[in-house]
Design a protein that fits this description.
The protein is an alpha/beta fold and 244 residues long. The chain folds into two domains: 2-80 and 192-240, Periplasmic binding protein-like II (D-Maltodextrin-Binding Protein, domain 2, 3-Layer(aba) Sandwich), CATH 3.40.190.10; 92-187, D-Maltodextrin-Binding Protein, domain 2. The chain contains nine helices and twelve strands. It has helices spanning 14-30, 45-49, 61-65, 121-133, 147-156, 166-175, 204-216, 220-225, 237-240, and strands at 2-3, 54-58, 72-79, 89-90, 92-97, 113-115, 141-143, 161-165, 182-187, 191-192, 195-199, 230-233. It has a five-stranded mixed sheet, covered by helices on one side. Strands 7-6-8-5-9 form a five-stranded mixed sheet. A two-stranded antiparallel ribbon has the order 4-10. The longest helix is centred in the first third of the chain and has 17 residues, at 14-30. The chain starts with a strand and ends with a helix. The relative contact order is 0.22.
Length: 244
């Protein structure tokens, strides 16, 4: 069996994610699951997610919607206690340079946007939806590969705007000096938070029950460090249809 928690595994939080896994793995073993001792940190996440021995991982809604649903099941989502979001939801922060005089998204028609990936719900789809609601069309997209890189691109002037997963934005502000050169322009609409997943043949109901109890008992220090408020059970149907 394999497990990973890759979506918020920032370098400054890896020790805490390992501690989180030790807590979860203990709960899983007590419930009869063969939980691995250590988290996997694969480079090829898409292959990793499709392995039949996947006990637990976390993905983004767009890869799930674009075909990963054929290989995995949704267990639930983490609640990050985000302002303006119901439990188990998240959204994106639209960030621009601090000295940019534009005060609304409508002023960014034709602007260069930094995007972590075109299959990202928080960094791409949410940005396109926000632009649609503002009745603008963004200009060129700079693909950066990561939210941290998108933050740097806007801070250095390589891009004018980026949509950053709200949890990643909170984490970035803890460790990235570039955030001091940025400001929050707006928040996007809430959508279901990143799904926790397991292999297609796993007992998802039993896993969801273990996760609910384990996250409820998570030490407060880990909750604070990893920006976790709790766990919300969800199913695959929450993610297979676009929220918009």
């Amino acid at each position: 069996m394999i497990a990973s928690l890759p979506m918020y595994d920032w370098p400054h939080c890896r020790a805490q994610n390992d501690a989180l896994w030790a807590h979860l793995a203990t709960a899983l073993r007590q419930a009869g699951f063969d939980a691995p001792k250590r988290l996997s940190r694969p480079r090829d996440l898409h292959s990793h997610w499709k392995r039949p021995g996947l006990l637990l991982s976390q993905t983004c809604a767009m890869p799930f919607r674009l075909g990963l649903w054929r290989h995995v099941q949704v267990i639930g989502a983490l609640d990050h206690g985000l302002t303006g979001c119901a439990p188990g939801q998240y959204r994106s922060a639209l960030v621009v340079r601090k000295n940019d005089p534009r005060d609304s998204l409508s002023g960014f028609h034709g602007a260069r946007a930094a995007v972590n990936a075109r299959n990202s719900q928080s960094g791409y789809a949410a940005l396109l939806r926000a632009a649609e609601l503002a009745r603008i069309k963004l200009g060129a997209f700079q693909l950066t590969g990561a939210h941290a890189a998108s933050i740097r691109a806007v801070a250095t002037g390589d891009a004018e705007i980026a949509a950053i997963d709200a949890v990643s934005w909170r984490m970035a502000q803890d460790v990235m000096g570039e955030c001091r050169n940025l400001r929050l322009l707006a928040m996007t609409e809430p959508t279901p938070a990143l799904p926790l997943i397991c292999a297609k043949g796993a007992d998802r109901d039993a896993l969801a029950a273990v996760m609910a109890a384990a996250f409820s008992a998570l030490p407060d220090a880990l909750k604070e460090r990893l920006k976790i408020a709790g766990f919300v059970a969800r199913n695959s149907e929450d993610y297979t249809i676009s929220p918009w």
